[in-house]
Design brief:
- By secondary structure, the protein is of the alpha+beta class.
- The chain has 4 helices and 10 strands.
- A hairpin with a 5-residue loop joins strand 5 (about 155-165) and strand 6.
- The chain is about 40% helix and about 20% strand.
- It has helices at about 5-85, 90-95, 125-130, 175-190, and strands at about 100-105, 110-115, 140-145, 145-150, 155-165, 170-175, 205, 210-215, 240-245, 250-254.
Length: about 250
C-alpha cells in the first residue's frame, strides 16, 4: 500500500470512528436525559405523596386535638359542679347530654356512676381503665382515644378525666353517637383554610359519599360532583392515584 492509499484509509477510519463516537455520545445524551426525566418525575411523585400524607395526618391530628379539648372542657365543667357540692350526676349528665359520668375515689374505685353496674369497679384492674390511674398521682387531667372499655369490650367510649381537690377524679365519657357528632362538628371547618402545597386542598366526605368539608363549598353534595368516583371495594386506605377533580387533574390520597 502506497503512502496516498494509507493516508486515505486512515482518514476513512478516523471518519468512521468519529461517526461512531457521535452516535455513542448521542445515545448517552438521550439515556441521560431519560434518566433525569424519570428521576425528576419519581422525586416529584414521592414529594407529592409525602406532602399529601403529612397534610392528612395534620388534619387528623387537628380534629383529634379539638375533640380532646371539647371533652376535657366538659369534664372540667362536671368537676367544678362536683366541687361545688353537686352529687346528682344523673341530672348533670342529662343537662349536658353526657353519656357517662364516673366518680373515682383516691383508691381508684368507682364510688358513683350513671351506670350502677360500674359501682365498686377498681380502675387498675383493666388496661384501658388503668390509664386513668395517673390522675391519682400528680397529673390533673387525662384524655383517651375512642376505644373498647376494660369493664365490657362490647362497649366503646372516649373518656376524659380530671382530678378532684379532695383526691380521686371524675371521668366523663362520650358514646359512639356523641363522639361522631363531636368529630363531625370539627371536620366541617377543618379544610376551609388549609392548603396542600400551592394549589392543593383536602376534601372530606362521610361513609355515604356526602361531602362534609370542602374548600370549594361543596358541603352537603355527593362526592361525585367533584368528579371523584370511589369504589370502596377496590380502593384501599392510604392509596394514592390521579383523578379529575373539579375538571383538573389532581393527585389523590385516600
Amino acid at each position: 500500500m502506497d503512502k496516498k492509499e494509507k493516508k486515505t484509509s486512515q482518514k476513512r477510519i478516523t471518519r468512521l470512528l468519529g461517526q461512531w463516537l457521535f452516535v455513542c455520545i448521542g445515545i448517552a445524551l438521550v439515556l441521560t436525559g431519560m434518566f433525569v426525566y424519570f428521576l425528576q418525575n419519581w422525586l416529584s411523585d414521592r414529594e407529592t405523596k409525602n406532602l399529601l400524607s403529612i397534610n392528612i395526618c395534620d388534619v387528623t391530628a387537628d380534629i383529634s386535638d379539638a375533640s380532646d379539648e371539647n371533652l376535657l372542657a366538659l369534664t372540667h365543667t362536671v368537676a367544678d359542679l362536683l366541687e361545688a357540692g353537686r352529687t346528682d350526676i344523673e341530672v348533670i349528665a342529662e343537662e349536658y347530654s353526657i353519656a357517662e359520668i364516673n366518680v373515682v375515689n383516691a383508691e381508684g374505685v368507682i364510688t358513683a356512676s350513671t351506670y350502677d353496674y360500674f359501682l365498686g369497679y377498681q380502675m387498675a384492674d383493666g388496661e384501658q381503665s388503668g390509664e386513668f390511674c395517673v390522675l391519682l398521682g400528680d397529673m390533673e387531667e387525662y384524655v383517651q382515644s375512642y376505644q373498647q372499655i376494660s369493664y365490657d369490650e362490647s362497649i366503646s367510649r372516649k373518656y376524659a378525666g380530671v382530678s378532684l381537690t379532695d383526691g380521686g377524679f371524675v371521668q366523663v365519657g362520650y358514646d359512639a353517637e356523641q363522639f361522631q357528632k363531636d368529630i363531625d362538628e370539627q371536620v366541617v371547618g377543618a379544610t376551609r383554610n388549609r392548603h396542600v402545597g400551592q394549589n392543593g386542598y383536602i376534601i372530606i366526605s362521610n361513609e355515604s359519599g356526602i361531602i362534609v368539608s370542602d374548600r370549594n363549598g361543596g358541603e352537603g353534595d355527593d362526592l361525585s360532583v367533584t368528579g371523584i368516583t370511589l369504589d370502596t371495594d377496590s380502593v384501599s386506605v392510604d392509596e394514592k392515584f390521579r383523578a379529575e377533580v373539579y375538571g383538573e387533574s389532581r393527585f389523590l390520597h385516600v
